[in-house]
Amino acid sequence: MQVAILRACRSARRLIAVGIVVAALVAGLRADAAPLQQQAGSPGAVYALTGSPHVWVADEEGALHWVADTRALIGKTVRWSDRREVSVEQLRSFRLGDPWVSAGMVTLGAPIYLAKWDTNQEQPQLLQVQSAADLALFGISAENYGTFIMEAAAWEQRIGFNAGELTKATLAPAAPPP
Length: 178
Fold this sequence. Notes:
Blueprint: H1 2-28, E1 45-49, E2 55-58, E3 64-66, E4 79-86, H2 88-92, E5 105-107, E6 112-116, E7 125-128, H3 132-137, H4 145-148, E8 149-151, H5 152-159, E9 168-170
């Protein structure tokens, strides 16, 4: 009986955490930047966020996709010689597409972690995302949240690693602090 109550409490906490993140994402959507008003990137060009390790690559239609790791680039056209530094404000002026991730993101309690899995690594590393504003810049929205962010059990089944046993660190922020 106590185990069932503990599981129900954990599930309720997860639902509350997910609800808070989704609400923050919806609230953070820019009302003044409708997709038709946003500019398109140059296909294959790399857009590096000034002062951070984060990069986005423009697809064939000009939408910018945040690149989570090198495995996510397999099969994608990237013109590394066409690299442009952009500020957060400039980045927000582009159409942002879904993130390019190889192993998605996972929730461990309330925190959300990027499962960064580069081609030279045998297993992913979990990097804690710093804010809902970062998620929005990475292309996570209320519409695609469930596609890219999974609870630990579902993520472990899909990816094949125990999230609790992976190395954890902090993901560099993309959005400026509030």
